[in-house]
Amino acid sequence: MANPIFNLLVSPLLLVLMIGSTTSGSSASVVVYNVVSMGARPDGRTDSTKAFLDAWEAACASVRSAVIYVPRGQFLLRNAATFKGQCRNSDITFRIDGVLLSPPYFSDDHWISFQYVKGVSIYGGTLDAQGSALWACRTEGHNCPKGATSLFFSNSQDIVINGLESVNSKMFHIVIDGCKNVDVRGVLVKAPGDSPNTDGIHVQQSTGVTIVRSGIHTGDDCISVGPGTSNLWIEQVDCGPGHGISIGSLAKSYDEPGVQNVTVKGVAFRGTTNGLRIKAWGRPSKGFVRNVLFQHAYMSNVENPIVIDQNYCPHDHCPHEGSGVAISHVTYEDIRGTSATQVAVKFDCSPRNPCTGIRLMDVKLSYNGNHAALSSCSHADGTAYGFVIPASCF
């Protein structure tokens, strides 16, 4: 059943709704801006970028809580839509019932971005970046645009993303960079398994991020965790196709901040190239990874279910200097399912900074469903508890 508030949004430029009352007898008001009333066209052809930016400017300047409403239909945002703070208002909601379309080719780094905002929520809607033309251009080896992130949050706090669908992003679908207190739930990410660099959700330089009850099916990492991330909670995520959930790659720079206090639980991996992965380049770095819990994961035909790779180098010209990233106190508990390769558990750590404090608890992984899987360890130290299959190589 549709929300009766939004059924009223047909033609007014501005509608002030009085909703509820406080115990003191005063009323709380919400200001609603309908992007169609501000000039947007739901035909999928007319550029509606200005209408969205005008709605944001009005909501940002409002002293009342504000809703920017996007009704049903297709809205083309031909240019980058950048929503900037600092706003007078710290309670702005995007309620999206329609589809936002990107042009097939796009020259900016970010398609829809929020910068220096506080208290912004996005409910519902679909972001369709129409990335297939760019992917084909890259496959054919032409001189192609770089590609844009579909939804980018930077230097922001108290953010909610709920019920959003992101399809066919040109690059990353959702990036959270330099943010605090971000709640992502009920998100659906979709792109073909061979689409390049289409990470589902990337988190870096952020704290207090929660990602729950979401489905991520794409061509790169379902969720990637970059340097400077702390207090990250991931739960009940369905991943595949894709490259799994990855902390890293790290050690891209020497003064890189570390990753700590990460929990990943209740995740299902289906046909992914990796499951639970930590990866770092083999070069000096001040970075680290510590206090990570991987718990209650299910693997179905995953190529590398459990992997730490401190010699990460997907291309030529590998540094081979020994990773400076210190990896410690990583726990794998109740990890079950099938590996598509015989080595289901691989810890390839650095002789310069061996992995320490690795714990395996109640792990049961088989190769192709009914064959014995193997473990491989290099410069890794840890302990095993309960039943651990394949047997630990510590």
Automatic annotation (TrEMBL):
Gene3D superfamilies, sorted: Single-stranded right-handed beta-helix, Pectin lyase-like
GO process terms (BP): carbohydrate metabolic process; cell wall organization
Similarity remark: Belongs to the glycosyl hydrolase 28 family.
Broad class of the protein's primary localization: secreted
Localization terms from the record: Secreted, Cell wall
Any Pfam family: Glyco_hydro_28
First and last residue of the signal peptide: 1-28
Superkingdom of origin: Eukaryota
Coiled-coil regions listed: none
SMART domains associated with the record: PbH1
GO molecular function: polygalacturonase activity
Protein name in the entry: Polygalacturonase
InterPro entries xref list: Glyco_hydro_28, PbH1, Pectin_lyas_fold, Pectin_lyase_fold/virulence
Keywords annotated in UniProt: Cell wall, Cell wall biogenesis/degradation, Glycosidase, Hydrolase, Secreted, Signal
Species name: Stephania cephalantha
